[in-house]
Amino acid sequence: MTPTSGLGGQLSIDLGALARNWRALDKVSAGALTAAVVKADAYGTGIDMASKALHAAGARFFFVATPDEGMAVRAAVPDAHIFVLYGLYPGAANLYIRQNLMPVLSSIPMLEEWLAKCVERNEAYPAGFHFDTGINRLGFRLSEAGQVRERIERLGYAPQMVMSHLACADQPNHEKNRTQLALFGSVISQFPGIPASLANSAGLMTGRDYHFQMVRPGIALFGGRAVSGRKNPMAPVVTLHVPILQITDGRIGETVGYGANYTLNRTSKLAVLGYGYADGLLRSLSGSNSRPGGKVFIRGRLCPIIGRISMDLTIVDVTDLGGDLPSPGEGAEVFGPNISVDDQADAGGTIGYELLTSLKGRYSRNYVGTGELPE
To answer: What residues make up the catalytic site (predicted)?
Structure first.
């Protein structure tokens, strides 16, 4: 993240809300362990502070994508149990062992390398096993379950967890969910007594049949919408305000921004924001005459983004604020309590995940709500 003077945008992360979201999901998943997925810099909120807040709330199991992310969680939360979803990088077993990281093994070569290291050191180092039940990404093929079982039984090795991942959990009634649930049941029947995990945020909310022994919420922890077509029950965690640099006049018939794809149809008041795609604002949120773009919240109203979003600047039509125009230096809310990250994402034709994980802009990061966490 680019250092700031504190005069630009302000990104506020409510750690108290993050903790409350974890506790709420932990109640829903009663009977199963509730992990915390903190990959991609904890969905843009900062892996160090987010991991500490989640641990203080009660989380003990964490999922990351890469070993580097795992080491960041280990530094923040020394007693965490950390699974690395990318699995075992070739030749990196010693690093995982030194950092007490558990690779989620997803191929026969990964399994063989990990087991060879266990034999070499005469120690059954823990790992997870990932089986692909229909998303065709990482994972052992279902046809490999017997081979995997035979190989570990020969050595007397048992994984810490067997997992899979749902392709359509955000659509609870999708037939794919039930198909994957059945396939996952056939997998875990071959590994009796081993904890199982299938549910992400949406799967956790879909029903207890998907919970098994561990659930793995990610986006819901950070206030994002997990299930399509339902009201989001999670507390907002992230608020982004960006500075208004200038208020300018626009005349009817003039164009706004690069490409001249927005022509003013009235005499307008325009606010120029110090924020653009270099800061994570997607160009798909640009507004043209043929397609509305995103909106920002200024002085109690949602104001439309007009013209093409550029690297550093975004133009907003504030004409409808009338005489209550903002002054340079005031902030415009890009998302937060008045416009959700999901509403903004919908306007850009994407999902809240993408906006949150794009939070690498030129703004200062402020953590609030720490007083709500246990000592």
So the answer is: 39, 258
